Amino acid sequence: MRRLYQGLLRLYPAAYRQEFGEEMQRVFLQAQAECSIAPMLKRARFCARELVGLFSGAVHAQVRLLFGADDWLRLRRFNMRPEFRFPRSTVFLMCVILTGVVLAIHKAKTVAAVSEGLRLETVAIWHPVVWLCPFGVVLVIVGAVWGILFALRRTGMHRLDRTQAWPGQK
Amino acid sequence: MARFPLSEPVFLVLLSLAEEPRHGYSILKDVESMSGGRVQLSTGTLYGALQRLLDQEWIERIEEDAAPRDRRTYRLTSLGRKNLQMEITRMRHLTKLAGLRIAGKEA
């Protein structure tokens, strides 16, 4: 259990581990020692609680590191960085607009085909995959943007904003 | 930035530190005792809450030269105490309101 705990601790960001890792292990060992004389069921509940708590804590810590402290839970906006903030509704609106454009093109093609005297049966029937394509494209674009922002963040560029000049330095 | 209402674990952690400065294990046991065994924090949850509270400056570490790195003590700051007081006032108001409404319904 101790090894598993130490292994799960590795899921936390390095800075977090450095700050709290030893302390967490010590508290865990104390709690485990106290629980060791408890009935089997209580011990199992303790282990499950610790593992779930540690895993969810690691996810929280990673997300906090990525999106910034406390803001990640506010799902009204994507808060990767203040300068890249945009409302969540943007993605939905983009999808709606894209779907509208695709439908308009499809309708125009149908009308054009009918006006040219072709029978409706000859007009291409849209496969469901074609319908899903725009959403796929949007998802890929969103993923790519997120990836670029993630990569920028990993470079540590955002830390430059936080640097301060010494007093008297211009 | 303060966000109310506080979650129950965070509220209990603050309440535990309001009495006296404590280290991690002591907070864990005190929270369990205060809630009558209903709230049992895991170490992951506890330190997640402590980290947020440290970031928000609601609590602080007591720097002791003799204290080992894995046994550090935390205490409530004046900001933390003020926010805890605000939360207690909010809860008191709600409890009073609920009492009045239920009494009015029963009458």
Show the helix and strand layout:
The complex is a heterodimer of chains A (170) and B (107).
Chain A: H1 2-9, H2 14-35, H3 40-67, E1 77-78, E2 86-87, H4 89-115, H5 128-155
Antiparallel strand pairs in A: 1-2
Helix pairs in contact in A: 1-2, 2-3, 4-5
Chain B: H1 8-19, E1 22-23, H2 24-34, H3 43-55, E2 59-62, E3 73-76, H4 78-106
Antiparallel strand pairs in B: 1-3, 2-3
Would you kindly provide a written description of the structure presented here, covering whatever features stand out?
The complex is a heterodimer of chains A (170) and B (107). In chain A, α2 packs antiparallel against α3 (40-67) and α4 (89-115) runs antiparallel to α5. The longest helix of chain A is centred in the N-terminal third of the chain and has 28 residues, at 40-67. In chain A, β1 and β2 (86-87) form a beta hairpin. Chain A has helices at residues 2-9, 14-35, 40-67, 89-115, 128-155, and strands at residues 77-78, 86-87. Chain A starts with a helix and ends in a 15-residue tail after the last helix. Chain A folds into 2 domains: 2-73, no CATH class; 77-161, no CATH class. Chain A contains 5 helices and 2 strands; from the N terminus they run αααββαα. A two-stranded antiparallel ribbon of chain A has the order 1-2. Chain B has one domain: Arc Repressor Mutant, subunit A. Chain B has helices spanning 8-19, 24-34, 43-55, 78-106; strands spanning 22-23, 59-62, 73-76. A 3-stranded antiparallel sheet of chain B has the order 1-3-2. Chain B is elongated and about 60 Å long. The A-B interface holds A 16, 19-20, 22-28, 30-31, 49-50, 52-58, 60-61, 69-70 and B 1, 3, 24-25, 28, 40-48, 50-52, 55-56, 69-72.
